[in-house]
């Protein structure tokens, strides 16, 4: 068994209202120095050793993300 992480983020040109809401709230809560916040999704998958990188990319692109507005990164942890 191996562990894989897939991080999905809005593409840079896509507005991120949730990230903007967090960025606007931080100074009101006393946190300064934060200039931008982007909010994404984080998935952890336990996979069999036989699952290859191409299959993981197809899962990330076709199921975990919307490739029109999101980018993803797949990382094997073990």
UniProtKB/TrEMBL annotation:
N-terminal signal peptide: none
Enzyme class: ligase
Record field: catalytic activity: N(2)-formyl-N(1)-(5-phospho-beta-D-ribosyl)glycinamide + L-glutamine + ATP + H2O = 2-formamido-N(1)-(5-O-phospho-beta-D-ribosyl)acetamidine + L-glutamate + ADP + phosphate + H(+)
Keywords: ATP-binding, Cytoplasm, Ligase, Nucleotide-binding, Purine biosynthesis
Keyword flag Nucleotide-binding: yes
Domain of life, source organism: Bacteria
One Gene Ontology term, aspect cellular component: cytoplasm
Chief place of localization: cytoplasm
Entry EC no(s): 6.3.5.3
Presence of keyword Cytoplasm: yes
Subcellular location: Cytoplasm
GO annotation, biological process: 'de novo' IMP biosynthetic process
GO MF terms held by the record: ATP binding; phosphoribosylformylglycinamidine synthase activity
Pathway info: Purine metabolism; IMP biosynthesis via de novo pathway; 5-amino-1-(5-phospho-D-ribosyl)imidazole from N(2)-formyl-N(1)-(5-phospho-D-ribosyl)glycinamide: step 1/2
Description of how the protein assembles with itself and partners: Part of the FGAM synthase complex composed of 1 PurL, 1 PurQ and 2 PurS subunits.
Family: Belongs to the PurS family.
Function text: Part of the phosphoribosylformylglycinamidine synthase complex involved in the purines biosynthetic pathway. Catalyzes the ATP-dependent conversion of formylglycinamide ribonucleotide (FGAR) and glutamine to yield formylglycinamidine ribonucleotide (FGAM) and glutamate. The FGAM synthase complex is composed of three subunits. PurQ produces an ammonia molecule by converting glutamine to glutamate. PurL transfers the ammonia molecule to FGAR to form FGAM in an ATP-dependent manner.
Protein name: Phosphoribosylformylglycinamidine synthase subunit PurS
Lineage start: Bacteria, Bacillati, Actinomycetota, Actinomycetes, Pseudonocardiales
């Amino acid at each position: 068994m191996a562990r894989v992480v897939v991080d999905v983020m809005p593409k840079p040109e896509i507005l991120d209202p949730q990230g903007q809401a967090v960025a606007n709230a931080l100074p009101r809560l006393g946190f300064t120095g934060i200039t931008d916040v982007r909010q994404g999704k984080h998935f952890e998958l336990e996979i069999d050793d036989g699952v290859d990188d191409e299959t993981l990319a197809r899962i990330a692109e076709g199921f975990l993300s919307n490739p029109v507005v999101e980018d993803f990164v797949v990382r094997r942890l073990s």
